Each structure stands twice: as C-alpha cells, then as structure tokens.
Amino acid sequence: MTVSMIDPDECWTAVLGRDRAFDGRFVTGVLSTGIYCRPSCAARHPRRENVRFFADGAAARGAGLRPCKRCLPDDVSRDERAVLAAIAAIRAAEQPLALAALAAETGYSPTHFQRVFTRHTGLSPAAYARALMAERAAQALTEERRVTDAVYAAGYSGPSRFYAANEGRLGMTPSAWANGGRGVTIRWAVVPTTLGDMLVAATDKGVCRLSFGEGRAALEARFPNAELVAGGAEFARLLDEVIRAVEAPGDFAHIPLDVKGTAFQEAVWRELRRIPAGETRSYAELAAAAGNPGAVRAAGSANGANNVAVLIPCHRVIRSDGSLGGYAYGLEVKRALLQREGALDDDLL
Hints:
The chain is α/β, with parallel strands linked by helices. The chain has helices at 8-16, 57-62, 75-92, 99-106, 110-121, 125-143, 147-153, 159-166, 174-178, 216-222, 233-247, 263-274, 283-289, 296-304, 331-341, and strands spanning 27-30, 35-37, 51-54, 66-67, 185-193, 196-202, 207-212, 227-230, 281-282, 317-318. A four-stranded mixed sheet has the order 3-1-2-4. Strands 7-6-5-8 form a four-stranded mixed sheet, sandwiched between helices.
C-alpha cells in the first residue's frame, strides 16, 4: 500500500532534499523504471508524476517494484537490526567488546559496521560503550552510599579507570553528584533582560543553569546540597558574556558549560550548538544529525531536557510544518529569540 502516515508533499520534499532523516520511514516508488529507493538515494530525481510513496519495501514489492541497486533501500531495516543487536550486546557485556566481535555478530566488516553504528547513534561503538558506563556511573552515584561501590556497580575495573574516563564530563565530582551537589559552590544571579528576568548559575566548570522566570528556590530544588553564592568577581565576568549572548545573537561557543545527560541527550545538545544563528531545524533533522533518524520523539524530549537555554539553542528547533512548536519559557520568548536572530518567517511573526 502507499504510505498514508506522511503527507506526499512532505515525502517529495524529503526526496528532493535527499533527507536521511526519512530513510526507513517510507520508500520512493518510481513507476517509470519499476524500482523503489530510499528518500536519500543519490540517483537522479524522477519526474513527480512517475512517483508513488510506499510505507516500506514489502509494500513496494507488492506493487511490482524492485529495490534500487544503488541505495539498497531494504538494508535500512537490516542496519537498524544490526545496531540494535550491537547495543543489546554492549549493554549485556561486563567488559568492553571489540569492534571485530560486534561486527562478526552482525555479518558486517568492522569498518562498515563502525560507519553504520555511528550513522545511527552519533557515536562509535567504543564511544557508545564509554557513554553507557558513564551514564550507569551517574545513576549508581545517586543510589550507592559510597563512591567506590558506584564505580564497580557501573562496570569500571577500579576508581582510577572511572576518574580517567570521566574527567571533565560529570562537571561536579562523583561524591558531590552522589550527595546532591554537596561540597560544590554554585554562583548565581537573577538579572533583567529584554526577555524577562533571567537566572544564570555556574560551577567552576561552567554554566549549569540558564532559565527565565526562575529564582533561588528553583536552583535549590535542582542542587539541594550545593553551596549557593550570589555574585562574585569571576562570575560577574561570565555573567556579562551570557547577557551579551542572550541580547545579541552571535557566537557564544566559547562560554563554558557544565551540563550532563544521557549519551543521546548530549549528542542532541551538541547538534543544537552547531545550528548557526539565523537558521532553524526540524525535530526530524535534529534526530538525524544526532545519529538516530528514527528517534524524532526522543530528540524532542532531549530538546526539552536542556538546562541551559539560549547557550544550547533549543529555541532553534521548530516543527516540520514551520510552526514554532513548544518552548519551556513560552512561545513569546522563543519568537523573540528567533526574530532577533533573523530566523523567523514573516507568517510566524
């Protein structure tokens, strides 16, 4: 059957743009040649009147079409199965698995499997395993009484391996993380901006919270055992940089951050920081850029879990139909940010 869950015009736009985010969501049937392709197929575009869209390869084959030998559309599902199998193996393993062993499990060569895995997850298998261990460590640090117990519970062979692997990643020390920020000093301020009152908070690693309409109580809820200190000379210089970034669009990649999330969340946040001022992305494009084209809903959740507004510019993500979508601090703030960056179409003003 032809695809019905996606608008044909949206499908055609994806085909014209060779958008990898839509690979696996439908296939393009070319009636004049009798083949079907991935949306991202690099072959010359057919005439629109010769095209029909199908939910998957089976539906296209049922209509008498055969798979394209150039883009191999049926391999999309095979790649996904291989990646899911590898992720399950990585999660179940007590020790890191060699790339060759993972590739052998899937029937791919190590080099090809590394490319497939990275395209789907945004990380190499080894980096994914390290991120998973760090994620387990962060979880264990909230559950175990002692840091040493958390280190071994996360799968590290010893504390030295844990500290070497996570240096600079957790921001706060492991013991501070386990105790709700105990022993960590967070400097903060609430300042007026053209977008309303803005809360900025930072550890000695970088900005850990930027929000609108919040104050000390919200910060205390996030870091109940941290020492909250208002102001300070070093913080004042950082605060000036943050205010300039909010009031005048530009390059603020130099402003340090102290944020942490799951492997996929961090991949999404990295991609958000790569969106230039004056441009927007759809949730589907964001998911694809983060390495998992099928995780559109998860990309939206990662977008919403962002703790540092503007500096991680989640406001630059809009719906595929061009509407603004949601924003934690209200659509008026999102609209104002996009407008001053020159990224807002006239019909959305």
